[in-house]
Amino acid sequence: MKHYSIAEAKEIITGYKGPHIRIMEVCGTHTHDIFKLGIRSLLPANVELISGPGCPVCVTPVGYIDEAVMLALEKQAIICTFGDLIRVPGTKMSLADARRQGGDIRMVYSPMDALDLAKENPDREVVFLAVGFETTTPITCLSVKHAIKFGIKNYSILVANKTMPNAYMALKDSADAFLYPGHVNAITGEAVCKEMLEKYGVSGVIAGFTAEELMDAMAVIIVGLQSGKPFFENCYTRVVREDGNVRAMEAIDEVMEAVDTEWRGLGIIPMSGLKLRDRFAAYDARKKFGIPEIKGVPNPACRCGEVLQGKCKPSDCKVFGTGCTPQHPVGACMVSDEGACSAYYQYGGAI
Ligand code: SF4
Q1: Using 50, 70 and 90 to split pLDDT, how confident is the model at 76?
Q2: What are the structural domains, with CATH classification, of the chain?
Q3: Model-level pTM?
C-alpha cells in the first residue's frame, strides 16, 4: 500500500468525507501520543478514534491489586512494582494505602531491580508484580532465570502478564480497523495481524509513535477503508520485522505458558494470559505464599471496562474529571500513563 508524507496524510485525513469510521487505537501510548501530537484535532467528525485494551495496568483486574496488598500486609513481603500500579484502587485499598499501613512497597524500573533487592535483603521475601504484554514479559522471564542461576530463593513474581492476539479476536467486531501497537508487534511480528485479516477480514495497520508514523498510519487506514476491501499494512517497518523478535518470544516460551485469564471489563479471554511453567513454580508468588483465589470488586461508578472495549468514551463516565481525577483516581484508566481516561483528562476533556 502507498505511504504518505505528513502533508499528504493531513490532506487525506482532513479531507475525508466518506461514511462514519471507527478506528481502535489498541495501545494506550498511541492514545496519549495522538492527543499530544494534535492529531485528534485534525479528525473530521466522521472519523472516530476509540480506545482499546492495550494498557497493561488498565486491564489488570481489581483482584490482582488485592493479592498484592495481601502479600504486602499479611505476608510482609517487599512488593516491587512499576510506578503506575501503586495508585490503582483495589477492592478495599490501593498499594499506596497499603504502604501507609506499613506495607513495604517499592517502585522499580525493571524486574532486575527487584532481583537486586532480593540479593541485598536475603532475610526478606521480594515479590515483583509482573504486569505487562509481550514487550515487558521477556525481561520478567529473564529475571526468573537469573534468580535460579544465582541461587536467589527469596524472589518470586505475581504473574498477570497478558498477550494480545486473543484480545484482538475478542474485540474483532469493535471497530472498522485496528491501529496495532508497534512495540508489541516488534516482539510478536506481523503474523497475528495477518491472521486477523485472513481469518476474520479485520483491517488494521501496525503504527509507530512519531507524528510522521501516526499520520501515515491514519491515512493508510482511511484510504484502505475507502477501497472497500479488508487490508493489513505494516507502517512501522523501521522497527517491526515480519517475524518479530524470535529470541524474545523464545525467552517467554521457555519460562511461561498460555493460560485463560481475566481482563478488566473483558472478562476471561481464553489463552490470553501467561503463567510460570511448573518447573519454575518456586518463583510463583501465588504458590509460594498459598494465596487463595481473590475476586476483586471494582468501584460500581467506574466504566473502565467499557472504555477498554471502545464502548464508551472516558468523558461518558459520570465521575470523569469530578469524582475521578489523576490526583484521586477511581479506576485504573485514570491512573496509568497509558490509560485512556488520563489521556482525555490531560489533553482533551470531551474531544
Ligand atoms: S473516569 Fe475514572 S471512574 Fe470513570 S471510567 Fe475512567 S477511570 Fe473509571
Answers
A1: very high
A2: 1-298 (3.40.50.11740), 304-348 (no CATH)
A3: 0.92
